[in-house]
Write a structure and sequence with these properties.
This protein has 15 helices and 17 strands. The protein has helices at residues 4-18, 111-118, 124-140, 156-169, 192-201, 226-238, 257-262, 280-289, 297-303, 309-319, 337-347, 364-370, 373-378, 412-418, 446-464; strands spanning 33-42, 50-59, 62-67, 76-79, 83-87, 89-94, 143-150, 172-177, 212-218, 243-246, 270-273, 293-295, 323-325, 396-400, 425-430, 433-437, 440-441. Strands 1, 2, 3, 4, 5, 14, 15, 16 and 17 form a nine-stranded mixed β-sheet that branches. It has an eight-stranded parallel β-sheet with strand order 6-7-8-9-10-11-12-13. Helix 3 (124-140) runs parallel beside helix 4, helix 3 (124-140) packs across helix 15 and helix 11 crosses helix 12.
Length: 473
């Protein structure tokens, strides 16, 4: 239970964490009037499509114009010649508190073992550093919106530390306040911290200049008993918060979509992830209720034991479920949406002798939409971001098409999916502010971020011991 004394202590700890900001003092992250000129514009807007050569006008954080030959008095020109201009990626499932633990796994010491050995050891300073590392990593790779699935929210101080990282991290996000990792299965989540955070930060609906909104991630039946899970869901529904649920990658099937629908739990504000175990009937219910799916291509293959994930992905598409892409945790996959698209495209093919025979394969445009517009819609931000559309916020990425790994160019959507990497990302606008320019992060003090997470990692590894014990130097 959180009383005034513990609340004050928690807030003080979080403020202390945030006092050492990791945004460079010299960084200019103000919104200005920009004219992005002469690029190949992949809008992911059904009406606009792909414009082989066009301009994008950004004015005070908003996309104010798209088309060839735009003029804008007083605008700063950003030369996009030889570049592909696209909307920022949307990652709909990322456990950012553990971003600094990307290399904690080893042969014989996989993801869940590493998480059990370390999750209790993160203090508020560690999660601040970890989330900020994750945000800088995302920005570097052209991701401008992320769903921070905070499934180890150990205290109010931890939650506020993560939120302070979002304040300093400059990207659009949903912060989904979650449970304490390894808490007893029969104990419901404590919503006191969620209520406090909501009141302090989200009383007007969003925080940090409108970039961050609040959600809740519940454990689901994989980590809680039925009475505790039902209590968690009832508490979240009463608060009318967006809900995120892990739906399982391995048997048994722990989500019955028809039952969830009867309970009033499904719809656009409920995001299911994985769900490799879904039956066709579950998928039909999701499509009918408009319930989106977050698909983590690497994770579904690495951790799934429910059959071939290719089958599930193709059947979700056949049912009409809106699929978005995500990375899960950095110790499972990189927070690189180019790679996520490539894996989804590579594996999204039907094969003979299976239920997928005869189904259409997943194309380049399909996965590009999953990684952008579908992700925005899954987070309730379809009118805000996810495509280059006049009136939406300016989350824009410029990719150098003349780099050696992309040359000699060709079809633009194919190039983005088949060949591009974060190293090709030249410029990133987040809500109209430049956070990467000329291939270099300019919105973050990268040296300090790396130094800080190295210190946190060393402390956590030392405390965990065993295979994670740092070598003597």
């Amino acid at each position: 239970m959180i009383n005034r004394r513990t609340l004050a202590k928690s807030v003080g700890a979080a403020l202390a964490v945030s006092a050492t900001t990791t945004v460079p003092a010299s960084a200019d992250t103000s919104r200005r009037r920009y004219l992005i000129r002469g690029g190949a514009v992949v809008t992911v807007d059904e009406k606009l499509g792909v414009l082989p050569r066009a301009d994008v006008l950004v004015d005070d954080g908003e996309i104010a114009g798209i088309g060839p030959g735009l003029t804008a008095r007083g605008a700063q020109v950003v030369d996009a010649t030889g570049m592909i201009v696209m909307p920022g990626f949307v990652n709909t499932h990322f456990h950012m508190w553990s971003a600094l633990g990307r290399n904690f796994v080893a042969d014989g010491f996989p993801y869940f073992a590493a998480k059990r050995a370390t999750s209790t050891l993160y203090d508020p300073q560690d999660v601040y550093r970890s989330v900020l590392l994750g945000l800088a990593d995302l920005a570097n790779a052209g991701v401008t919106t992320v769903h921070n699935w905070s499934n180890n929210t150990r205290s109010l101080a931890h939650a506020e530390a993560e939120l302070r990282a979002h304040r300093d991290g400059l990207l659009r996000a949903r912060f989904s306040y979650g449970h304490v990792d390894q808490m007893p299965r029969d104990v419901p989540m404590d919503f006191t911290g969620i209520d406090s955070v909501r009141q302090r930060y989200f009383s007007r609906g969003s925080a940090f200049d409108g970039l961050v909104h609040l959600g809740v991630c519940v454990r689901g039946l994989s980590q809680s008993d039925e009475p505790a899970f039902f209590a968690d869901m009832d508490a979240a529904v009463r608060r009318d918060l967006p809900i995120a649920i892990h739906a399982g990658q391995s048997p048994p099937r722990i989500v019955d979509a028809a039952d969830y629908e009867r309970r009033g739990w499904l719809g656009p504000k409920t995001l299911l992830t994985h769900y490799v175990t879904a039956l066709d009937s579950d998928m039909e219910v999701m499509a009918r209720t408009g319930t989106p799916l977050s698909w983590s291509p690497h994770s579904e293959f690495r951790l799934g034991a429910a059959g071939d994930p290719r089958d599930a992905l193709l059947r979700f598409r056949r049912a009409g479920v809106a699929v978005s892409l995500s990375s899960d945790a950095t110790s499972i996959a990189p927070s690189d949406m180019f790679e996520a698209m490539r894996v989804a495209w590579t594996t999204g093919v039907p094969w003979q002798g299976t239920p997928t025979a005869g189904l259409p394969e997943i194309g380049f445009r399909d996965v590009l939409t999953m990684a952008t517009l579908n992700g925005a819609r899954a987070l309730g931000l379809g009118d805000v971001t996810g495509s280059l559309t006049v009136g939406k916020r300016a989350d824009v990425v410029l990719v150098r098409a003349n780099d050696v790994n992309l040359a000699p160019g060709g079809l633009f959507e194919t190039t983005l999916v088949q060949a591009a990497t974060p190293a090709n990302v030249d410029t990133v606008f987040s809500d109209g502010r430049i956070v990467k320019r000329g291939g270099r992060l300019v919105g973050y003090d990268v040296e300090r971020i790396v130094r800080d997470v190295r210190a946190s990692s060393l402390r956590i590894r030392t405390a965990a011991g065993g295979i994670l014990t740092p070598p003597a130097v």
